[in-house]
Design brief:
Helices cover 66% and strands 10% of the residues. The chain is of the alpha+beta class and 885 residues long. The strands form 4 sheets. It has a 6-stranded antiparallel β-sheet with strand order 2-1-4-5-6-7. A 6-stranded mixed β-sheet has the order 8-14-15-3-16-17, sandwiched between helices. The protein has a 3-stranded antiparallel β-sheet with strand order 9-12-13. The longest helix has 73 residues.
Length: 885
């Protein structure tokens, strides 16, 4: 992580926006933050930590109130319109990120806003998290930097009073930090993955052995594959005995004899059936003689069929014509009544016609049409003028606001120009004063002055502190020119906005006058309007209503007239239908009388006294045909049954009828024997196949198990060693190597401390879980034979120096391994050092140049102020703290 820029406002004691340019500070490698106690030096580090993790650089012991609460960090001297903001920009592996946390007041309460952005190739920051939540921002910081907040304070930022925390941390805490920095989890994952695969292989083999044992147990008492093979041999012997017994029983011969007996019994059954059938036919002989007599009598009266049919048709036709005449006569009175009713309704409607009154009202309304057509246009013009005046009024207000903003910007730009002009003049004066002082300091009495040429120098120019370079003068002049351009641009914009304001105000007044004139014209035109009708559309509606009344009346008159005409036609039709029906009835009656006389004459001629006596004898052609066919079928069946009976009796004369009652028992015996044999044989064959397949499968599994067991056990044992189950794991081993490199880098720096008196060494002690620890001891080179002492026993100054070397060493090794930690920030700690130790510390910090890192220090120590060239001064005032420019 390489810091680039830090901005904050209304944060801690700082009311106004402050900017820390780390890119500029990185050029110096080492910088000092100084200022009076309580001025807010540590707050600079707090702002950076808060932007990343949502908390200050100190303790996290408080939650709602304290270092992690945004509202508690808000400057109490900032007004409600000023937002509290922290914004930290940094680089990780070539990508530039910007983390922002903002607190602003909305209505009565404060609300928070968060953002994480990535700078694209065009230099524009693009938001990475839409509607980011506080925890999402913190998680993203840990993901990008690779450190939690607590680890960040132990590796990158050493808060006041906690600089030795990583040095004295226990093995577990050190392991967690080192794992994050060096991404050592990957080695643990490698070990776990290898263990999982080895464990899976061993488990698979164990499961295979269990499967073999379980499969044997399924068969009962068998304990080995060999016993199972012997069982198959014994089942095959049982099958041989079953085959011999079934062959001796001879089931096929017994089944053949039974089938023959069944066939003979069937023939005797057919004989008995024909005997019964013949007896039944002989018993029906009298019935068929009666049918023969009936059909013969019916054939004699067939000559009356046509006479009777003609008579019945004329009877039916006469009855139908009589009913039709009655129906037509019943329609006459209703038709006459309907005609009278429609005639009365038509005359009543004609007497109440509204047509004349409606046509008069339409004429009066049409006379007002021109007034309403003009009033709509006048009203539309008034509405249009009002809208245009409203737009002009809004434009005028916007122009007022724009001109006020432009005036304020021009004023601000002018004040900035005055300030930059003064700074440029002051820088030039200090530059020339510095040059004169340098020249004067090198003058020798009797030698010419390169400026004035005198050889006597009674009052040489004094050499002043804080002189500046030519580059700084050029920078000040460039800043003044930039401010002058900004003022010129702002002033031109102000004049343009003021001119635009005048044009907008003139346009507003003109639009207002147009609206007033249009409104008056509209009001004046209202006098000629009809009461209750205010628009042309309402006038059109009133005219349409009158026309609708006329249309409705005409439709009703047309309808009632049509009804009257229809009623007249209907009455005429009814009278005509009655006359036709009377004629048809008379004709039908005459035909009926003729047919009756003809029939009676023919009956008397043949000797029958009435139609009814003849109809009781008559049969239809279909009935006669059916009786004749039935007689033929009866005689044919009697003849066929007699012939079949004689043939079967002749065939069976030499056979004895078998006993059918024994057939089921004989068949049951044969079926039982077949079922017993096939069931036992099938079960044995199935078991033989199943056990043969199982023996083959189990032999393969047993061979595979024995062949792979030794390799799987060896792999699992090695996997446990890699994971650290029985000692140092792979991950801890790699961490030990990386930590040794960190210690080596730190010891190289400690050579500059107290003449190389101390070196730090990782202990060989084993901590909980039989794992080698990461604790440190300090070895005193003045006593090479002694073991050394725990780093916690060092003095405060010694701890500080060792911690400083260890932190820089950590950064150096981390960068070599791909982790980007290009900054270290130290809050106090130098107060515990004497002047010699401070000199040693500065030698250690000089190594920063070699690691291309940056170190920021907060300290009150005077020696550091005189030693460190680049400094940030925090000033304290009644209106809040600020960074001196």
């Amino acid at each position: 992580m390489k810091p680039l820029r830090l901005e904050f406002q209304a944060f801690g004691p700082y009311k106004d926006r402050e900017v820390i340019d780390f890119e500029d500070l990185a050029k110096y490698g080492l910088f000092l933050i100084k200022g009076p106690t309580g001025s807010g030096k540590t707050t600079i580090f707090d702002a950076m930590t808060f932007a990343l993790y949502g908390g200050g650089s100190g303790t996290d012991s408080k939650s709602k109130t304290g270092r992690n609460d945004f509202e508690e960090w808000r400057c109490n001297q900032a007004d409600d319109t000023t937002n509290t903001e922290v914004e930290f920009t940094f680089e990780v592996h070539g990508d530039v990120y910007r983390f922002t946390r903002r607190l602003f007041k909305k209505t009565k309460n404060y609300h928070t806003e968060f953002d994480v952005s990535l700078r694209n190739a065009d230099g524009v920051f693009i938001t990475m998290l839409e509607n980011a939540k506080e925890k999402e921002v913190t998680d993203k910081a840990e993901e990008l930097i690779g450190l939690s907040k607590e680890q960040f304070r132990q590796v990158v930022l050493l808060p006041q009073g906690q600089f030795e925390k990583f040095l004295t941390a226990d093995s577990a805490s050190k392991e967690e930090i080192l794992t994050k920095i060096f991404d050592a989890d990957i080695w643990g994952k490698y070990a776990d993955a290898f263990f999982d695969k080895a464990q899976a292989r061993k488990t698979a083999l164990d499961d295979m052995k269990k499967a073999v044992d379980s499969s044997l147990a399924e068969e009962g008492e068998y304990k080995s594959i060999e016993e199972l093979e012997q069982c198959v041999v014994e089942i095959r012997e049982v099958n041989k005995l079953l085959d011999a017994d079934f062959e001796q029983y001879n089931a096929d011969a017994k089944q053949k004899q039974l089938n023959s007996d069944r066939e003979l019994a069937g023939k005797f059954d057919n004989l008995h059936k024909l005997e019964k059938q013949k007896v039944t036919l002989q018993e029906q002989a009298d019935i068929y003689k009666q049918k023969e007599s009936k059909v013969s009598a019916a054939e004699k009266v067939d000559i009356f069929t046509d006479y009777i049919d003609d008579w019945e048709k004329t009877q039916k036709s006469c009855s139908e014509r009589s009913k039709a005449l009655d129906n037509k006569q019943a329609q006459l009175i209703p038709a006459e009544d309907h005609l009278k009713a429609t005639d009365s309704a038509k005359k009543e409607l004609e007497n109440s016609s509204p047509v004349e009154a409606m046509n008069k009202q339409i004429g009066e309304l049409e006379a007002k049409r021109s007034i309403y057509e003009n009033i709509d246009q006048l009203m539309a013009e008034a509405e249009k003028a009002k809208k245009e005046w409203s737009i002009a009024e809004n434009n005028s207000k916007a122009a007022v606001k724009a001109s006020e903003d432009a005036i304020e910007r021009a004023k601000s730009a002018y004040e900035d120009l005055e300030r930059k002009d003064k700074e440029a003049a002051d820088t030039r004066q200090r530059y020339f004063a510095g040059i004169y002082g340098e020249i004067a300091s090198e003058l020798t009495e009797g030698e010419k002055c390169p400026v004035c040429g005198n050889t006597h120098h009674p009052e040489p120019a004094a050499k002043i502190d804080g002189s500046v370079s030519k580059e700084q003068v050029d920078e000040a002049e460039a800043a003044r020119e930039k401010a002058n351009k900004c003022f010129t641009d702002a002033n031109n914009d102000k004049e343009a906005k003021v001119a635009a304001l005048k044009l907008a105000q003139d346009d507003e007044r003109a639009r207002h006058d147009l609206y007033i004139n249009a409104q008056k014209a509209w009001e004046n035109s209202k006098g000629g309007m009809i009461e209750g009708i205010t628009t042309i559309s309402e006038l059109e509606s009133a005219i349409d209503k009158c026309k609708a009344i006329i249309r409705d009346y005409n439709n009703k008159l047309e309808s009632i007239t049509q009804a009257f005409n229809d009623a007249t036609k209907n009455l005429a039709t009814v009278k005509s239908d009655i006359a036709n029906a009377e004629g048809e009835y008379k004709k039908a009656k005459e035909e009926c009388d003729r047919a009756t006389k003809t029939l009676n004459d023919e009956l008397a001629k043949q000797g029958y006294d009435s139609v009814e006596s003849v109809k009781t004898i008559m049969l239809s052609a279909e009935e006669q045909k059916a009786i004749r066919e039935d007689l033929v079928a009866y005689n044919t069946e009697l003849k066929n049954v007699t012939a079949d009976l004689e043939a079967i009796a002749s065939e069976l004369v030499k056979y004895t009828e078998p006993d059918k009652n024994c057939f089921d028992n004989r068949q049951a015996e044969i079926d039982a024997k077949n079922k017993e044999y096939t069931g036992a044989k099938s079960a044995n064959d199935s078991k033989i196949k199943r056990l043969d397949d199982k023996v083959k499968k189990l032999k393969g599994m047993e061979a595979q198990y024995k062949g792979k067991l030794d390799a799987a056990e060896a792999d699992l044992k090695f996997a446990k060693q890699l994971r650290g189950d029985t000692g140092i794991g792979f991950k801890r081993y790699v961490l030990g190597i990386m930590f040794n490199q960190v210690i080596s880098e730190a010891n190289n720096m400690l050579k500059h401390v107290h003449n190389g008196r101390y070196q730090i060494v990782r202990t060989n002690d084993k901590s909980a879980g039989n794992k080698r620890g990461l604790e440190l001891i300090a070895h005193d080179n003045r006593k090479p034979l002694e073991k050394g002492r725990n780093v916690a026993m060092l003095s405060g100054g010694e701890k500080f120096l060792v911690s400083l070397a260890l932190s820089i060493g950590m950064s150096s090794v981390a960068q070599k391994s791909g982790i980007q930690i290009e900054a270290l920030f130290i809050d106090e700690g130098f107060g515990t050092l004497d002047d010699e130790s401070i000199g040693d510390a500065m030698d250690v910090l000089a190594c920063v140049r070699e690691t291309n890192s940056m170190i920021g220090i907060i300290s009150h120590v005077q020696l550091l102020e005189s030693t460190i060239g680049k400094q940030i001064e925090v000033c304290k005032s009644d209106e809040g703290s600020f960074i001196k420019k």
